[in-house]
Design goal:
Layout (H helix, E strand, L loop, with lengths): L4 H6 L14 H6 L7 H15 L4 H10 L5 E7 L8 H17 L6 E7 L6 H4 L1 E5 L5 E5 L15 H13 L4 H16 L4 H13 L4 E4 L4 H16 L3 H15 L12 E7 L5 E7 L2 E3 L4 E2 L1 H10 L4 E3 L4 H8 L2 E6 L1 H7 L3 H6 L6 E4 L2 E5 L1 H10 L3 H6 L1 H12 L7 H21 L4 H34 L1 H9 L13 H7 L2 H6 L7 E5 L2
Parallel strand pairs: 1-2, 1-11, 2-5, 11-12, 13-14
Antiparallel strand pairs: 3-4, 6-7, 6-10, 7-8, 8-9
Helix pairs in contact: 3-4, 3-10, 8-9, 8-22, 10-12, 10-13, 18-20, 19-20
C-alpha cells in the first residue's frame, strides 16, 4: 500500500518535498513579502467587493489591515459548490479566519482570504449538495450547471432560485431557522451575477464578521494583478510541468503515489475559448494547441493583455499564481491539497517565490443531540462509526446481549492460545515454524471475519426494528461519504439556528474532531 502524503506531512515528515515543516508558524511569521503591492491588492479587492455587494464595515476593516505594509495573509479556497457545497468548504474558511485572528497584531496584521475557484469548469463537482432535515430525509439539490464553462462565467438562473425555494419549503426544521437561511440565500442571489458570485456572497455572509474576505480571481481588477505570473509561465510553459514530474518520480521512489502527473507537452495553463469552454493547452514545438485550435505564444500574450481572465492556471500552477498575488503566511489546505503541494515547491521557485506554510484545515464532524445520545449508548466515536457503522452497532448489541463470542477479548484469548500452540509445535520441530504461523494467522483472520459477519447481521436485524443503523449512516455517512465531505453546512443552521456557526468560530484553528450541537 502506498504511503499517505498528508499523514506523513502532519507527523512532521516529507522534508524533501515541503519547504516548511507542518506547524512551523514561527518561521512563516518571520518571513516578509516586500514584493507585493498591498495597496494595489487592497484596491482590487475593494473593487471586487463593491461589485459583489459585500463591501460592508467588516470588509472595509479587513481591507484596511491588508493595505498595511507589513500585512500577511492566511489563504484558503474551494470550488464554488451549490449553497456553499460540502461542509468542509465552510470549515476551511472558518479555520483560515481563526488562524489569522490568532496571528494578527497591530504592527503585522494578518487577514484571512478565501479564494473562490471561479475559474474551475468541472460542473459535476459543484452542481449538487446534500442536506438532512428533522424527518431524517436526505434532500439532494442538483442544479443544471453547464459543463466545461468556468463557473465564474455561468449566470445564476431563476430556475435555480426556484429549486432552492422548493427545497426550503419542504425542509422539516423550525420555521424561524428556515426563514433565517432563506434570508441569507435571498441576499446572495438578489444582486444577480454568476454561480460563483452566489457562492462567494454566502461564504462572505457566514464568515465575513470573523474577518474573512472572499476573492474571485476572475474579477478584472484582480486578474490584472495576476497577469505577470501567467506571462512568466508563458515564457517557459513546460518548465513547471517538468518540475512537477521530477517531484512525482521522487515521490514514487519513496513509496508515495503522486497526485499530479503531467504528460509530455502538457502545460499548466488553460485557455477560455470563443465558445466559452475552458481547455488545457499543450505545446508542440513552438505551437500551443487546445482540443480545437492552435495558438502562437504571441496570440496568447495578446489575449492575456486584452483579457487576463481568459488565461488561467491549472492545479499545478494555481497555488503559485495565488501566492504571487498575496503576501501569504499560511495556506489552509485539505489532504488532497497537501498531496498536490508535495510536488509544487520547485514550481514556486520558477516564479521567484518560496512555498508558504501549508496548514491542515480545521475538520469537524457535527453531532446533533439524537446522534450524541446514540453514540453514547454504543460506546463509540463518530470516527469509529464512519469506519465501520454496522460493526459498531453489532458489537454494541452483542455486549448488551452478553454475546461474548463477538468480543475483542474472546478473539484475544484465542490469539494467545494459538500463539502458545504454534510456539510449542515449533519447539518440537523447527521445520514447522512457518506452517504453524500461517495456520495461526489464517485461523485468527477467519474467526475475526466471522465475528464481523455476525456483528453485521445483528446490526441489520436491529436496523430493521429501530432504524438505528440507517439513522447513523444518514448523519455521519450521508450517501456513503464522510459527513463533512457530503453534508451541506446549512443543514445545521436550518435545524439549530446560528448555534453551529458560533461553535465553529469558537474552535482552535487546528481543530479536528467532533462537535456536539446542544
Amino acid at each position: 500500500m502506498a504511503r499517505n502524503i498528508a499523514a506523513e506531512y502532519r507527523r512532521g515528515g516529507m522534508g524533501d518535498f515541503f519547504r516548511l515543516a507542518a506547524g512551523d508558524l514561527e518561521t512563516a511569521r518571520r518571513e516578509t513579502r516586500p514584493d507585493v503591492d498591498r495597496a494595489a491588492l487592497a484596491a482590487a479587492l475593494r473593487a471586487y467587493h463593491r461589485d459583489l455587494g459585500t463591501l460592508d464595515r467588516a470588509a472595509e476593516a479587513a481591507l484596511e489591515r491588508l493595505a498595511h505594509p507589513g500585512s500577511r495573509v492566511v489563504v484558503t479556497g474551494q470550488q464554488a459548490g451549490a449553497l456553499t457545497g460540502p461542509a468542509y468548504s465552510v470549515h476551511k474558511g472558518a479555520g483560515a479566519a481563526l488562524l489569522a485572528r490568532s496571528l494578527d497584531t497591530e504592527d503585522a496584521p494578518v487577514v484571512a482570504v478565501y479564494w473562490v475557484a471561479s475559474q474551475d469548469h468541472d460542473a459535476e463537482e459543484v452542481a449538487s449538495t446534500t442536506l438532512l432535515d428533522f424527518s431524517e430525509t436526505l434532500r439532494r439539490l442538483t442544479l443544471d450547471v453547464p459543463a466545461g464553462v468556468p463557473v465564474g462565467r455561468v449566470p445564476w438562473r431563476a430556475e435555480w432560485t426556484a429549486q432552492v425555494h422548493a427545497l426550503l419549503d419542504a425542509f422539516d426544521a423550525p420555521a424561524e431557522h428556515v426563514a433565517s437561511v432563506r434570508a441569507r440565500f435571498e441576499k446572495a442571489v438578489a444582486a444577480g451575477g454568476s454561480y460563483a458570485d452566489v457562492f462567494a456572497r454566502l461564504i462572505q455572509g457566514l464568515l465575513g464578521a470573523a474577518g474573512l474576505l472572499v476573492l474571485d480571481p476572475m474579477h478584472p481588477a484582480l486578474a490584472r494583478l495576476m497577469a505577470p505570473a501567467l506571462a512568466r509561465e508563458l515564457a517557459d510553459p513546460l518548465a513547471s510541468s517538468a518540475r512537477i514530474e521530477d517531484a512525482a518520480e521522487q515521490l514514487l521512489a519513496q513509496g508515495f503515489t503522486p497526485q499530479l502527473r503531467r504528460p509530455a507537452g502538457a502545460t499548466n495553463l488553460f485557455v477560455e475559448e470563443e465558445d466559452g469552454q475552458r481547455r488545457l493547452l499543450r505545446l508542440e514545438g513552438r505551437t500551443f494547441r487546445s482540443e480545437t485550435r492552435a495558438y502562437t505564444q504571441e496570440d496568447l500574450t495578446a489575449l492575456l493583455d486584452a483579457d487576463p481572465t481568459r488565461l488561467t492556471p491549472a492545479a499545478g500552477l494555481r497555488p503559485a499564481v495565488q501566492d504571487a498575488l498575496l503576501p501569504t503566511l499560511a495556506f489552509v489546505v485539505g489532504p488532497g491539497e497537501i498531496a498536490y503541494g508535495a510536488q509544487l515547491r520547485e514550481v514556486y521557485a520558477l516564479h521567484g517565490l518560496q512555498q508558504p506554510l501549508l496548514w491542515p484545515r480545521l475538520s469537524v464532524t457535527w453531532l446533533e443531540p439524537n446522534v450524541t445520545r446514540l453514540l453514547a449508548r454504543l460506546g463509540a466515536s463518530a470516527a469509529e462509526v464512519q469506519a465501520d457503522p454496522a460493526g459498531v452497532l453489532g458489537r454494541a448489541l452483542a455486549r448488551e446481549r452478553g454475546a461474548a463470542a463477538l468480543s475483542a477479548a474472546r478473539l484475544d484469548t484465542l490469539t494467545r492460545e494459538l500463539d502458545a500452540l504454534a510456539g510449542e509445535i515449533a519447539a518440537l520441530d523447527p521445520t514447522l515454524v512457518g506452517a504453524a504461523e500461517r495456520t495461526r494467522s489464517r485461523t485468527v483472520g477467519r474467526v475475526a471475519h466471522l465475528q464481523n459477519l455476525a456483528a453485521a447481521a445483528l446490526a441489520r436485524a436491529e436496523n430493521d426494528r429501530s432504524g438505528q443503523l440507517t439513522r447513523l449512516q444518514k448523519h455521519l455517512l450521508p450517501n456513503g461519504v464522510p459527513q463533512e465531505r457530503e453534508m451541506n453546512f446549512l443543514t445545521y443552521l436550518l435545524k439549530h439556528g446560528d448555534t453551529p456557526l458560533r461553535l465553529l468560530l469558537a474552535l482552535e484553528p487546528d481543530w479536528s474532531g467532533s462537535v456536539e450541537i446542544p
